[in-house]
Amino acid sequence: MLSIEARGLTRRFGPLTAVDHLSFEVEEGEVFGLLGPNGAGKTTTVRMLACLIPPSEGSARVGEYDIGRDSLKVREIVGILTENPSLYERLTAYENMDFFAEAYGLSDKREKQIRIRELLEFFELWERREDKVAAFSKGMKQKLAIARALVHSPPILFLDEPTSGLDPEASKGIRDLMARLSQREKRTILLCTHRLEEADKLCSRVMIINRGKSLIIGTPDELRRRIAGQPTIQVRLREVNHKIIEAVKELREVREVNVDNSGNSLIITLDDIESTTPEVVRNAVYAGGLVLSANALRPSFEEVYLKLVKEG
Q1: pLDDT at residue 205 tops 80
Q2: Boundary residue ending a domain (198, 218, 238)
Q3: Using CB atoms within 10 A of its CB, is residue 119 exposed (0-12), middle (13-18) or buried (19+)?
Q4: Confidence (pLDDT) at 263
Q5: How far, rounded to the nearest angstrom, does the alpha carbon of residue 65 sit from its chain's CA centroid?
Q6: 168 shares a domain with 21
Q7: At a CB cut-off of 8 Å and minimum separation 6, what does 251 contact?
């Protein structure tokens, strides 16, 4: 079931085209990454999908609703975290949560109180609930903004840099929360982030955009394969000799064998890592080699991202 479906989504600001005919789909319960350099159009895309600004052209459905005809319904079913927390700094943390809970239609007083306390405790803000938000650190404001986005238990979340300003422990807590919301509760998350390791770990698929246009959509591993070519493994041995090299080359699935600069590892290009790696290790051992480790060599997601953006 699709949670988000965009077709030719476009936004112009005068002569500038910020988003240029984007088309993509996001499945229910999926964490979908929207990646790209500053100014690529990520935030504008999120703002259109959340019905904060209208598209200049194209269409999209969020849940069961069309963003053009059913903007109020869309706002009811989404939670949004923008680049700026957009909190009322003269109000306390509790007052902010209470205000937004009311705005999202949580009318039952008891239910609302339970939900607010649950979220403020989760984000370790309950003890500061009566403090004015103006006195909060950037990280605390970020936590409160995420709590606000979750207060009405929306099935779809738009999160723009959710771990910005957070320390490593708090960032891990947010990543764990996103994974839980997606996997256990089947919430759909559209994630904008510059933290590529975060996208690699969390996202089932990503779309890289630049200058408002989609460059590529796929899983992180599909994108790796796109730039890495044939699979390669590194086999570290106590000692490399000609007999071991020839034994590995005998395998039909092995395409190339090289010795790395250290002289103690073989860099092997092959057809399939999962099926062939055990055979490589077996042949090396039968040839008298002492295998210390065997690892797949693959580019980091950062390398993949930079190469794809550069190539356009």
Answers
A1: yes
A2: 218
A3: buried
A4: 85
A5: 24
A6: yes
A7: 270, 276, 279, 280, 283
Q: Quick one: pLDDT at residue 267?
A: 93
Please tell me the predicted confidence (pLDDT) of residue 230. Answer: 76
Q: Does some domain include residue 311?
A: no
Q: Which helix (H) or strand (E) holds 97?
A: helix 93-103
Structural domain harbouring 243: 226-299
Instruction: Look at residue 230 and tell me if it is in a domain.
Output: yes
Q: Average the pLDDT over 66-91 and give the result.
A: 92
Task: State mean pLDDT over 26-32.
Answer: 96
Do 211 and 239 lie in a common domain?
no
- Only one residue has tokens 């957070």, namely 166
Q: Give the integer Cα–Cα distance in Å for 34 and 215.
A: 11
Does the pTM surpass 0.90? The reply is no
CA dihedral sign, ordered 163, 169, 173, 179: positive
Determine which of 84-88, 145-149, 207-211, 232-236 has the lowest per-residue pLDDT on average. Answer: 84-88
Our CA angle for 260, 262, 268, nearest 5°, is 25
Question: What whole-number distance in Å separates Cα of residue 312 and Cα of residue 176?
Answer: 32
Residues 8 and 112 in one domain: yes
Contact, 224 vs 298, CB < 8 A?
A: yes
CA 310 – CA 302 distance, rounded (Å): 12
Does residue 167 fall inside a structural domain?
yes
Parallel, antiparallel or unpaired: strands 31-35 and 205-210: parallel
Strands lying side by side in the sheet with 2-13: 16-27, 2-13, 57-62, 65-66
Q: 70 exposed, middle or buried (CB, 10 Å; 0-12, 13-18, 19+)?
A: middle
Residue pair 23/37 in contact by the 8 Å Cβ criterion: no
Secondary structure of residue 92 in the 3-state scheme: strand
Token pair in block for residue 287: 């040839």
Per-residue pLDDT at 85 exceeds 90: no
Q: Does one domain contain both 24 and 140? A: yes
* 310: pLDDT strictly greater than 90: no
Contact (Cβ atoms closer than 8 angstroms) between residue 253 and residue 202 = no
